[in-house]
Amino acid sequence: MGLSSFLRKIVKSACPSDCVFKEVGLNIALIPPPKEVLGVIISRDPTIRWLKFYKYVMDEIENNDIQRNILFASAIPYMLFKRITDFMDKKIRDDERNLFQLIFHKCYWTHLHKCFTDKSSGRFQFKMKYAKKCANKWLREELKIAIEDGAKFAIALGNDVQNWLKNQKIREKFEVINLPHPSGLNCKWSNTQDETIIGAICKLLKQCRSHVT
Q: What DSSP letter does each residue of 13-43 carry, written as one string?
């Protein structure tokens, strides 16, 4: 079973019965995979601010590649690309085009928590206990299939994703690259001397040089 087939299995009726998002929660965000999967970008949760745009793209555009590119450009993957290139500045100039190719055309993007969350709603705010139920039900199998499809690495964005992933045996099957969430509110990216971030970016660029020409 490939990722495209697996995504068709991710439906509310099959979600954990004790998750508050199951019956009346917001939509599930499912982004089409690329034809070749070399990496997986894992972010925490899609937010309600992005829901309307996501629905229009998915409802009105039939081509999966175009859907994916538009969604990538509107949210986390583009933010990640910009954060890395701004952080590294001139040091990444020779790798910049290939990094773009890797992120936009050879990475699959998914979430720890599949349903859209709403900060203004107490019931549908992000809560780690529900994210864990969601990830244990869907993401664990999703990553297994991604590896079978050829994924060599995962980019884990933020502490919640990283903490879940470090307890999963599947992390031994591919390289995990831990980076801060690329949100504009995340001040970790401001310190361009941060050796942890530099080391993680270097791991990503190594993957880029090995697999993108």
A: GGS-TT-THHHH--PBP-PPPPSS--EEEEE
pTM score > 0.85 for this model?
A: yes
Single-letter residue type at 10: I
pLDDT tens profile 35-53:
999 999 999 999 999 999 9
- Rounded to the nearest 10 degrees, the angle between the axes of helix 64-74 and helix 96-105 is 120
Q: How far apart are CA 158 and CA 43, in angstroms?
A: 7
The Cα angle at residue 124 between residues 118 and 125, in degrees rounded to 5: 65
Domains with residue ranges and CATH for the chain:
3-211 (3.40.470.10)
Single-letter code of the amino acid located at 204: L
